[in-house]
Amino acid sequence: MEYTLFRELYAFLHNREVPSSDEERRKVKRMATNFTLRDNRLYYTGPSKEYMRMVVMSDEEKKSVLMECHINPTNGKHFGLRGTRNRVIAGYYWQTINHCVSEWLRCCPLCRLKIPEKTLPPPSQPTKIKEPWEAIAMYVIGPFSETLEGNQYVLTLIDLFTKFVVAEPLKSKIVAEVSPVLTSKLYTFGFVRKIITDQGNEFVRQLNDIIFNELNIEQVVSSECQPKANAQDERIKRALRKYINQNQGYWDINLAAVVYNLNTTKQPSFRHSPYFLFFQRHPRRPVMINACPLDDNFEVAVPGEDTDTRDKEMTFLNEQALNDTEEAQDTQGTSFGTQKQNQAAAVKMPESRKRKRLSSCSSPRMLIESPGR
Predict the structure, then answer these.
(1) In this structure, is residue 367 part of a structural domain?
(2) What is the DSSP letter of 41?
(3) Greater confidence, 287 or 3?
(4) Pick from 324, 332, 173, 156: nearest CA to 239
(5) The pLDDT of residue 298
(6) 109 lies in some domain
(7) CA 264, 269, 272: angle at the middle one, nearest 5?
């Protein structure tokens, strides 16, 4: 069909012959302004008459042009896609140049040997955490106002399964100060299989050199664009920041009490507190410690007694916590998407509607209250 149109254009420009149908006749007359004849050949000039590109009239001519423009005559090397296409467009014309050049390079035996095969990595399968202290997230929060002890940062470890929090004040966030504190917590609570951190690559490399290579702990850098995985961690960090900002100058003194309150408060997404899920026993709050004091006459049970029953209870509790975690993550992912949609809609909302909407909303409440409230 392409060659038929070019032959009709050639006949019209050469001796004013026109097609029989009215539609084809109008089309040829309209396109003829972009073409001209020279030495008995049809050339494409364009609407502004700035080109002089020979029109290819057959498959044999097209093959000859592609071969001529694809191979460098000086050294015999083959041009790439862009180089071949530019050489063709510079001197020749037909309507499917881009497609023909791509197909020519794809079928060229020499070029096929040079093109590397694109291999996609296999889809990563998420690792399911099934027990406490198997994987933790590590954050260095700060800087905050400097305390009397010189502390400005908080090293925060969050158990990904139970959301149990461990926090320790730091004077700086350099690796030399973070590593001994982290090592101490690992020796206190036990070693983990994976540590996730949002610190930079250089921080991770230095920390690996000092600690992780010796302890055989794999580290994975978390991504802040995964709200489904980090929404609960962000709430914990917000609660710590709020307490620290309200107690500037001496926040490190009561940091342990604040963390204990976080761990003993039942989370919205769980049926139990992080403390109970982590230690498999209910916590004792300060107001309850002396409520039922022990007499001088008491007996300590043997820890190994009734082990089977405790194992069954712990297994059931872990399965229940795992189901609660998955449900909470799905809910958080959905709410995060809804929040983003509401934010996008708020941008387009008129100012009067924004004020009306804000006035009808209740004041935000903290998910976890700090001590003393």
Answers:
(1) no
(2) E
(3) 3
(4) 156
(5) 59
(6) yes
(7) 35
For the stretch 321-340, pLDDT in tens is: 777 766 766 665 555 455 55
**What is the model's pTM?**
0.52
Are 371 and 254 spatial neighbours (Cβ–Cβ below 8 Å)?
yes
Percent of the chain's residues with pLDDT above 70: 69
The tokens describing 4, both together, are: 């038929």
Same domain, 110 and 148: no
- 177, 170 in Cβ contact below 8 A? yes
Tokens of 291: 């409520």
Token pair for 101? 């050049």
CATH number at residue 36: 1.10.340.70
Tokens 């191979």 -> residue: 71
219 against 192, higher pLDDT:
192
Residues 71 and 181 in one domain: no
Q: Where are the beta strands (DSSP E) in the chain?
A: 35-38, 41-44, 53-55, 92-93, 135-141, 153-159, 165-170, 194-197, 218-221
**Residue ranges of the alpha helices (H) in 211-361?**
213-215, 227-246, 255-264, 274-279, 307-348, 351-360
Q: Is the pLDDT of residue 237 over 60?
A: yes
The sheet that has 35-38: what strands, in order across it? 35-38, 41-44, 53-55, 92-93
Residue 93 structural domain: 2-114
Q: Which amino acid is at 203?
A: F
